[in-house]
Amino acid sequence: MMRAGLRRGDGRRLVPRWLDPHGRHLGTWAFVANRLTGLGLVVYLYLHLVILSTLLRGPEAWDGLVELFRRPVFLAFDVLLIVGLAFHGFNGLRVALVGSGLLVDRRKGLLVAAGILVGLVTLVAAVRIVG
Amino acid sequence: MATRTEEDFTEATRWRRRPRPTFAWVAQVVSGVLLLVLLTAHMVAQHFVVDGGLRTYADVVAWIRNPVVFAVEALLLVCVTWHGIAGVHAVLLDLGLRGRAERIVARVLLDLAVATILYGLWLLYMLAFRG
Amino acid sequence: MDAPHVIVVGGGGTGGALAHDLVLRGLRVTLVERGELTSGTTGRHHGLLHSGARYAVNDPESAVECIAENRILRRIAPGSFEENGGLFVALTDEDMDYRHSFLAGCAACGIPTQELNAAEALAVEPGLTPALKAAVWVPDATMDAMRLPLRFFATAQRNGAQLRPFTEVTGLLTAGRAVTGVTLRDNLTGAEAELAADLVVNATGPWCERLAAMAGATVPVQPSPGVLLALVGRLCNLVVNRLHRAGDGDIVVPQRRLSIVGTSAWTVEDPDDLDVPDEHVQAMYREGAKLVPAVASAAERAAWSAARPLIGAIGGAGGGGGRELSRTFKCFDHAVTDGVEGFVTITGGKATTLRAMAEATADLVCAKLGVDAPCRTHEVVLAPHTAYFTGRAA
Amino acid sequence: MSSPRTVLLKVFRYGPDDAAPRYDQFRVPAGPRTTVLDALLAIRRRQDPSLTVRHSCLHGSCGTCGMRVNGREVLACVTRLDGLGDPVVVEPLAGAAVAGDLVVDMEHVYRRLEPVGRPLVRASERAGKNDTKADPGPLLEDLERFEDCIECGLCLSACPVAGDPRFLGPAALAAAERVLEEPRGTDGRAVLGLVDDAHGAWRCHLAFECSAVCPAGVDPGGAIMRLRRRVLADRLPRLVGRYHQEVPS
After folding, report:
1. What's the Cα-to-Cα distance from C240 to each of C141, C354, C376, D24, D58, rounded to whole Å?
2. Residue numbers in chain D where pLDDT is lower than 70
3. Helix %, strand %, coil % of chain B (to 5)
4. What is the ipTM of this complex?
5. Chain C hits for B5, Cβ within 8 Å
6. C279 to each of C240, C247, C249, C275, C285, how far by Cα in Å?
7. Residue C169 has pLDDT above 90, yes or no
8. For residue C389, which of D103, D114, D67, B11 has the smallest C-alpha distance?
9. Which domain holds residue A84?
10. What is the DSSP letter of C324?
11. C1-47+144-220+312-394 is classed in which CATH architecture?
């Protein structure tokens, strides 16, 4: 219902397209969390490969590194890694199912279930790591 | 065929020449589900059962020599690389990557994935047979 | 010689159909609307494609117009109607008495009817009150109050009409006693402009008195608002009318997942600032629930009022609640009525008769401008409403 | 009638000749039933006639008054000020060309919907009772009604992906699913080809923001998921070499 030759402008505030936090619902936060954890895990993949490469330099280098990684700061990082992994995994399973048209009407329940599982796995892992 | 009128859609239909888009989703789901299994196996076998969570050099080499472990680690490497790189591509799409730049980046990502897998397999091979 | 240029003021259904008709007859048309298209009375009505049955007894002229247009619109705008039909439901003995004159009236106006006993009526429309005595099926239908007129706009635009929403007429250009154009304000930018024309048509519905006054002309129109109530839930599939002489809250119209209960009537001077009297809303609930019981407990989606342009001698016989005034439409050639050349008003009428109103006006406009072209809008199939948006971009 | 409470409205302003967008503030009376649209029209009449707003039906049935209120996509005509706090921020839909203030060009909605070719009318479920297919009884072969989608564009504004013009978007994908569920004469295979695309059904990331804001009960998110299942069911056999499979029309 507009005349041609409109001024191209975007009614958004100065926030990138998919990051506007106002008035968003649970689904969007799950999507954002899934994306952040995913990118984090890709970064970790290459970090992990770099660390494993020290195995090529023989036992002294590797065992020295292992000792370093027993320090609490690295253990804390490991817990964080587990949380990211668990969330991306279980939320990913939900997305895989619902995204293929399965259990579409139970998506809310699946999201809650994923959250619970992430909590459980993190608990078990944290106890195992810290213990 | 329902023809599209807007230029943006014609750019979208150029995807036609690529593997059918359904394949991209199926690959992501299959790799994702495999990862759930393989990563669980990896985490339990490599870290959970080991006291202190990290193996010494000798333990790592001995463990990798087991052909089942070698196969699981290799398959895990392939799945995580494909799933991760495909995810990065989806994120870049949402950040507005389009046209020629998108095809170039897609090409680069594919090469990165192949390189990552080859390096990982080489690392596994070196450990298993030259450790 | 260039085709004559006509400015149509008013982006309602009548304006859209008129622009479509005039462009088909080879004239150059510019339509201006101060707000969004259909944002006046047109967009607010309940969406009934009238069969004319409601007016068969006390306003046969309107009834005949409605049934004729009902058939034409179904032909030129296929796929734009829910063609389930309507039921006139008798609840009381008094209603049953009225049924005989109702059926006679419909027959006289050529409106097909089918009598149903209570069981048959409940079978086709389970939303009805079980306490009904009998019902009469009529070829009512429902349309989308915005999308049907939009098809006229889309077709007019594709055939070359210049449609300018958000453009308000602030004054009329005159030469002596003749109107030669309009002064415009673009409401998006505030820019003022003038636009000349061979003839200006006033299709502003209940606001037509205000525009006519700019030319020193008068139009005997009485703005008569009515309250409409939208309820959550599709409480019936057919249009449900009360089988009695017209009264308040005697229609329930389904609209997707909503149900619209209408309407009431009172008269105002200024159709802009309409309020929604609460007692009218309660009347909608009360009267609607008699026809469709679920109305009583349905959640309210919205209540609003729409001003109908009723034609009647100002302060004339129909000074009462505004319902007695005739619902037919009238075309005023202000050269005849006020000695003002180049200025025509079309008002009155109903949403269903937008095409007929346009045809009558276009005939008058062409006669005044010496254009010899027959009306073809009863044959030309309209473009889909989506073409209004995408047609412009192509 | 009600306490003469007033609310501060922070309204987005951006005319075709303005260099940049700005926010104007207006104080408006707010009764228990006052909607955002009532407030905006009151501002237009009494405080600033240059404020441009789109509306038509006033009861959430036409889809022309979609906008963002406190960041949330709503239809202004059925959104009451009561309970929205103070101030209330009113902005146009996101991801669309702003024609003026709160009015956006709806071309981006219809450009996506038109190739799908979904009919406006569908078979009607049973009125009121469980939504089984309507039993027309003696009179009519089939009871029909309008499709739920009112083309208001709220889902396209809410969707985190739909800012990208390549993406077909929730409204069009939901319409495609409706065509495949009930073709009524349209070509199912063409629609499948349209949506089986990296920028069609496969571009959705399941935020379900579209279903959260849809004012017409369409649940576009759910429809996209059913659509993806339909595409998988049609394409998978051919991915593994089975021959062409007809779409049940």
Report:
1. 11, 23, 33, 46, 22
2. 1-3, 126-141, 239-249
3. 80, 0, 20
4. 0.90
5. 390, 393-394
6. 22, 15, 12, 12, 10
7. yes
8. D114
9. 27-130
10. S
11. 3-Layer(bba) Sandwich (3.50)
Handedness of CA B96, B99, B105, B107 (dihedral sign): positive
Interface contact flag, A70 B52, Cβ < 8 Å: yes
Chain D's closest residue to A96, CA to CA, is D206
pTM of the model: 0.91
The two three-digit tokens of residue D174, written as one number: 């939901």
What is the distance between the terminal CA atoms of chain B, rounded to a whole angstrom? 60
Which of B127-131, C71-75, D119-123 has the weakest average pLDDT? B127-131
The topology (CATH level 3) of D107-239 is: Fumarate Reductase Iron-sulfur Protein; Chain B, domain 2 (1.10.1060)
| Within a domain: A11 | no
Q: In chain A, how many domains are there?
A: 1
Domain ranges of chain B: 27-130
A7 lies in a domain? no
Question: Among partner residues B5, B13, B23, which is closest to D197 by beta-carbon distance?
Answer: B13
Tokens representing residue C181 in the block? 């154009």
Question: Chain D residue with minimal CA distance to B1?
Answer: D190
- D42 three-state secondary structure: helix
Subunits with 3+ Cβ pairs within 8 Å of C are A, B, D
Which has the closest alpha carbon to D196: B11, B28, B24?
Answer: B24
**3-state SS, residue B100:** helix
Is A76 domain-assigned? yes
- Calculate how close chain C gets to D222, using CA atoms only, in Å: 18
Q: Does C164 touch chain A (CB under 8 A)?
A: yes
CB of C11 within 8 A of CB of C21?
A: no
Chain C hits for B6, CB-CB cut-off 8 Å, are: 393
Residue-wise pLDDT for D14-48, tens only, equals: 888 888 889 999 999 999 889 999 999 999 999 99
A-facing residues of B in 67-96 (CB < 8 A) are 80-81, 84-85, 87-88, 91, 94-96
Question: How many CB atoms within 10 Å of residue D135?
Answer: 11
Which CATH number is A48's domain given? Answer: 1.20.1300.10
Every domain range in chain D assigned CATH 1.10.1060.10: 107-239
Does domain D6-104 fall under CATH 3.30.420.10? My reply is no
Residue B123 sits at the vertex; the CA angle it makes with B117 and B125, to the nearest 5 degrees, is: 100
Longest CA pairwise span in chain B (Å): 64
Q: Which residues touch A57 (CB under 8 Å, ≥6 apart)?
A: none
Of C149, C142, C199, C152, nearest in space to C40 by CA: C149
What are the residue ranges in chain A where pLDDT is below 50? 1-16
Segments of chain D assigned to CATH 3.10.20.30:
6-104
Distance from CA of C43 to the nearest CA of A (A): 14
